[in-house]
Design brief:
Elements: H1 2-7, H2 12-48, H3 52-87, H4 92-105, H5 109-124, H6 129-152, H7 156-169, H8 172-180, H9 193-224, H10 229-265, H11 269-305
Helix pairs in contact: 2-3, 2-4, 2-5, 2-9, 2-10, 3-4, 3-5, 3-9, 4-7, 5-6, 6-7, 10-11
Length: about 300
């Protein structure tokens, strides 16, 4: 969203370049979210049962699995950037910017995965604040670096991509320090295949489901770009704004599995059921409220990104 805001000052074609390839990056994020879901389910249960050694083992195994996916996705995205844009039939006027943005952001997977998995581990241990701190730090660095690289160094769309990558990499030392010094989670420097397969068994169905959903948006972009780069810009801004309005609901859906897992691990089944029922009511009311807010503020919000 920050990239879109600053790139929008360049023009709507630059926004279209980013919007075209964003769903490709969502495909990678869907895998990270799938691994995070498996991590939350299994680590929160063990943590609630006070089996801290098992919780530690599962936490570190999910990080090792993530590194494998990071390597595969980074290489494949970097190498196949040109092929992906040819498949999407990127218009000539935004092809170069889309290519640069996608290729540079292939190095973003390291920070993206580590932040996502770190937030899942911390939430599983009943600590949502640490994940919030990391996410906020990365966002603040991105807000600072975007205008500096886009306008100060005249890097245009490439500057937005570089800023996104650097802003996430900066917080990686904090993530590692926090994991190594967690009071209950001790470091594991070896791979347990049994634990890894158990995590994948839980994670892959969620990852595949989200991946297919993200792939649907990739295909959607392929047809929208048929109407030109400006149409792609309009669709991309609308998509990002609706995602922004979804954040309050997503926040509850992310925290709920950890809360349920801890209570099931502690054999508090009724409390787990209550948390589910309360969350359903809260998110339903929120959804209606956000619907009306979104309708009322959509036009002013769009004009923040592309005033013309």
């Amino acid at each position: 969203l920050v990239d879109t805001f600053f790139v929008g000052k360049i023009g709507e074609l630059a926004v279209g370049a980013i919007s075209l390839v964003t769903p490709v990056l969502w495909c990678a994020l869907s895998i990270a979210n799938g691994l995070a879901a498996g991590c939350t389910a299994i680590v929160s249960f063990r943590y609630g049962a006070q089996e801290y050694d098992k919780a530690s083992s599962y936490s570190w195994q999910i990080l090792y699995i993530s590194l494998i996916f990071i390597l595969i996705l980074t290489i494949s995205t970097f190498v196949c950037s040109d092929w992906i844009l040819v498949y999407l039939k990127a218009p000539v006027e935004i092809y170069k910017d889309s290519f640069n943005y996608l290729r540079i952001l292939s190095f973003d997977y390291l920070g993206l995965f580590l932040i996502t998995i770190y937030m899942a581990i911390m939430q599983s241990c009943g600590n949502s604040k640490s994940g919030m701190i990391v996410s906020a730090m990365a966002s603040i660095f991105n807000i600072i670096l975007d205008p500096l690289l886009i306008f100060g160094f005249s890097l245009s769309v490439k500057g937005a991509a570089i800023a996104t990558v650097i802003s996430k990499w900066i917080v990686i030392p904090y993530i590692l320090y926090s994991l190594f010094h967690h009071p209950q989670l001790k470091p594991y420097f070896h791979i347990h295949l049994k634990d890894s397969f158990e995590i994948l068994k839980l994670s892959l169905p969620c990852a595949i489901g989200q991946f297919l959903e993200s792939l649907g948006f990739v295909l959607m972009n392929k047809y929208i770009v048929y109407y030109g780069a400006v149409a792609m810009s309009g669709y991309g801004i609308g998509e990002k704004l609706t995602n922004l309005y979804n954040i309050p609901v997503i926040a509850f859906s992310n925290v709920l599995p950890a809360f349920i897992g801890q209570n099931l691990g502690a054999e508090k089944k009724e409390r787990a059921r209550q948390s589910y029922r309360y969350t359903m009511w809260i998110t339903t009311i929120l959804s209606f409220a956000l619907l009306f807010i979104g309708i009322a503020w959509m036009k002013p919000s769009i004009l923040l990104f592309v005033p013309d």
